[in-house]
Amino acid sequence: MDRKLKNSIFKMLIWAAACVAIGILVFLITVLFYKGFQSISVDFLISESKNFGSEGGVFYQIIGSVLLTLCAAIISFPLSLGFAIYKSEYVKNKYLQNFTDTIIYSLNGIPSIIFGIFGLILFVNFFNTGVSWFVGGIILAIMILPTVILSSYQSINSIPNSYRENALSLGLTKWQVIKTVIFPRAISGGFTGLLLGLARAIGETAPIMFIATAFSGVTFPNGLFEPVSSLPTHILSLAQQATNPDALENAWGSSLVLILLVFSFSISAFVRRLQYSKLKY
């Protein structure tokens, strides 16, 4: 077969696969928006759910999801920045670098349900915390650590070595170089990674289902070790009542609210990355 013909066929197959994948995604999003907008109203967003979620709104589910992701962000961001700076500036041994890379990528590949089981065994059972949104935030923070670390590390590595050398030649100490040259860049890239991580975390069900959330009867928590309701677990509960038309309608509305929250994080990360790509040294 002619080489040009092979290349043409290969390109056609690639384009066909891409079009099928994009078409499926567009179809799913279109159906979700069409069904969801029929269920959403201002009252739906500001009222609490009733009758196991089949009636009422998703106010406390939104509060719970935001609370979990905010907790995950507060815990994961400083830890990720510190680890990325340490790995970039202090870990010079090749074998130790490979070891840390293996740990990060392995952690990134662990199924989310494993994080939930880990939290259930360690915190809920061993430390006897009970079902707690704070524990859920810790587990989500651990889950998104690799994303934030890698983004911060790549940002630090993009800094030319001449900047470090020039700063040291001016008499700055290692810590001063990190504080004035490395740290600002690490924050810029780390924040992008954090947004991407939160876009994943806010839609997770498995890690928080048994350690942080309750399916019904939960309002605003009064302490660290109390459960919350979240959009993913709320949708799961409604899906189990799919034969009930009211529950199904609320499930569509809840799904649209969740996907809009995910989109908000993803779009923010995309905009942040565009701004970051324009930065030049």
Automatic annotation (TrEMBL):
<dbReference type="InterPro" id="IPR035906">
    <property type="entry name" value="MetI-like_sf"/>
</dbReference>
<feature type="transmembrane region" description="Helical">
    <location>
        <begin position="12"/>
        <end position="34"/>
    </location>
</feature>
<dbReference type="InterPro" id="IPR000515">
    <property type="entry name" value="MetI-like"/>
</dbReference>
<dbReference type="Pfam" id="PF00528">
    <property type="entry name" value="BPD_transp_1"/>
</dbReference>
<feature type="transmembrane region" description="Helical">
    <location>
        <begin position="133"/>
        <end position="156"/>
    </location>
</feature>
<feature type="transmembrane region" description="Helical">
    <location>
        <begin position="177"/>
        <end position="199"/>
    </location>
</feature>
<feature type="transmembrane region" description="Helical">
    <location>
        <begin position="107"/>
        <end position="127"/>
    </location>
</feature>
<dbReference type="GO" id="GO:0005886">
    <property type="term" value="C:plasma membrane"/>
</dbReference>
<protein>
    <recommendedName>
        <fullName>Phosphate transport system permease protein PstA</fullName>
    </recommendedName>
</protein>
<dbReference type="GO" id="GO:0035435">
    <property type="term" value="P:phosphate ion transmembrane transport"/>
</dbReference>
<dbReference type="GO" id="GO:0005315">
    <property type="term" value="F:phosphate transmembrane transporter activity"/>
</dbReference>
<feature type="transmembrane region" description="Helical">
    <location>
        <begin position="251"/>
        <end position="271"/>
    </location>
</feature>
<feature type="domain" description="ABC transmembrane type-1">
    <location>
        <begin position="62"/>
        <end position="269"/>
    </location>
</feature>
<keyword id="KW-1003">Cell membrane</keyword>
<feature type="transmembrane region" description="Helical">
    <location>
        <begin position="58"/>
        <end position="86"/>
    </location>
</feature>
<keyword id="KW-0813">Transport</keyword>
<keyword id="KW-0812">Transmembrane</keyword>
<dbReference type="InterPro" id="IPR005672">
    <property type="entry name" value="Phosphate_PstA"/>
</dbReference>
<keyword id="KW-0472">Membrane</keyword>
<comment type="similarity">
    <text>Belongs to the binding-protein-dependent transport system permease family. CysTW subfamily.</text>
</comment>
<keyword id="KW-1133">Transmembrane helix</keyword>
